[in-house]
Input
Amino acid sequence: MKKNKISGVYKITNSINKKIYISGLQIIFFGRFKAHFTLLKNKEHENTYLQNAYNKYGEYDTDGNKIWLCEVIEECESARKTLEEKE
Output
């Protein structure tokens, strides 16, 4: 399976406060990660907790390191039922 076509559950971690956002039901993770950060940069993200944290911390720390780490927790079949169970 191509890396950009995997399905499953992923998390976004704030490296400063260590809080995490977990989601799933994604067919194309890396496109979704990009979409998250486009929405966050434009202050349009539907998750107000994630948006507020992004507004507070920004995208990079003072050393230029990314604050937000995106990781695939578990890959699974792309069947919606399987994805919902895993999430």
Notes: The chain has a mean pLDDT of 82. The domain at 3-86 is CATH 3.40.1440.10 (GIY-YIG endonuclease). The radius of gyration is 13 Å.
